[in-house]
Hints:
mainly alpha, Arc Repressor Mutant, subunit A
Amino acid sequence: MATRLRPGYVRRRAARLDSATAPSRLRIRLRAAFGVNARADVLAALLAASPSGLSIADLGRQTRFTKPNVASTVDSLLLADLVTARAVGNERRVLLVGTRSILPGLRPPVPQPDWVSRFRVALAVHRFVRQDGRSTTVQAIEARLLVEAHLDPIAAEGMPKPNLDALGDEFAGAFDRWAAELADWLRSSVGSLLPDAGGARTRCSCSSRIRLPRQGPAQVTQQQVEMKRVRR
């Protein structure tokens, strides 16, 4: 027996992507043209690195594919005359052929954010601010060590930087302010890449300011205490 539709039910349209020309859909477009293997990711990395190119090791690090897989992919792209390779020392450096478009309207260089690096920093900060039970002095020391360990991706991605001139315990407060600024920056960078139905860019749907306060110890209610006694 067929199930009756509940009152007010609205059928949902199947998800469908009509165009992949938006900058945020670069890899979707490349995968539609070159397949869902390493070729699309290698081409995306080379588009961002043009005209300097990348080594096989750099391509493997950026695409998260193994070096043998990347090397095999590069051989296929060489055969298709999409890339060229030259020996630099004891490694092979791969470049796109000239500045021609590999797809209509897709001409190098094509700047792309490194989301892996961005969210690696965000995850490290998120884990740090969730810890509790430390003195302000310890928090300041460990916060500075965390920042110094991530200075390279912070600078490479143009992320906001904390006030490194703050000394001693003052750096704990500077770190907290920077964590809130970082959350705002990440939200705005994601929102700038979200196309609406008409292809225009829209703001992120997050309307409230993201804050990352340090969490104190959880409060245990009297009811929870009684429940523990009953279980015993």
